[in-house]
Amino acid sequence: MDVRQLKYFVTIVDSCSLSKAAERLFVAQPSLSQQILNLEAELKAQLLIRSPQGVAPTEAGKALYRLSRDVLRRMDQIRQEVQEGGGSESGTVAIGFPTTIASTLAAPLFERVRQKYPGIRLQIFESMSGYITELLANGRLDLAILFRDTESLGVSVHPLFDEDLHVVGYPVPNLGEHDTTCPIQFLGNVPMVAPGPTNGLRLLIERTFSRAGVDLNIVADIDSLPTMLEIAESGTACTILPASALARRHFQKRPPIRKVVEPSMNRPASLCWNNSVPTIAATQVVRSTMVELIAELHSAGDWQGITLREPPVVEIAPDPGPTTPVPREKRRKA
Predict the structure, then answer these.
(1) Measured distance CA(250)–CA(143) in Å, rounded
(2) Domain edge (last residue) among 59, 83, 107
(3) 332 assigned to some structural domain
(4) What is the pTM of this model?
């Protein structure tokens, strides 16, 4: 086993395809396949499952993937620190953002890290939160923002903020043009689009409507933020999203956005990391930078509709004070 084989394996898993990985690596596909067969023979384990849809790692392959990424990351860190004389944070940090979070945080984070830590290379993944959760669990991400505030097996959580949800779009009866809030009872049977049934936001919407006794009228399942916003802009249906979803989008005619109230709808957002993925110095500084940047964007009014969580309180044990030495004579008697 050598570093080249580990790089090949990681690229295959990231690409979900042998042919795409071969193109990225500039290696002939038969040669790449032989390298993986040699690796499987050496480790005495099947690492990949091949199907018409592509390739996916087995459980053994997932373990190798996590370890290989750590080895490759540390190799990059060694190379960069030696070249730069040491003393600076360097390496690759992979981060996953749900689409609504990425629209507000991704670009400012890139600019801040590029300015303060030029030795760090960011890999930013943007998708629906369910896929980001899967990538984090598989060790393909170092950090992710997820809509949760409790830890789970193998995943640490740093709560960041609570995010208010808003109804976005036109066909809402009983609301005036300048209303900034929308009681949930006004949304009964209003045509609405939302993410698919397994999405966390969809589950929150269904649960809130059910508890309020309001009829929810989902007319389409759409796992695409741009498409949901286009529909809301057109006036044919509403959607429910955080204010950040509209922050950096240009509309021909911006749809109205009103905070859902009576009851309000909100969800927690936390910075998460996989405990099985070793943390390097670059990951630690990016983690701190994200927390600082979110607070700055909120304070400046660039991130509206969120309530920051208080930083966790670290309890410090009381100082017992200086201890009085026991005379040698008393120690002998004892």
Answers:
(1) 29
(2) 83
(3) no
(4) 0.72
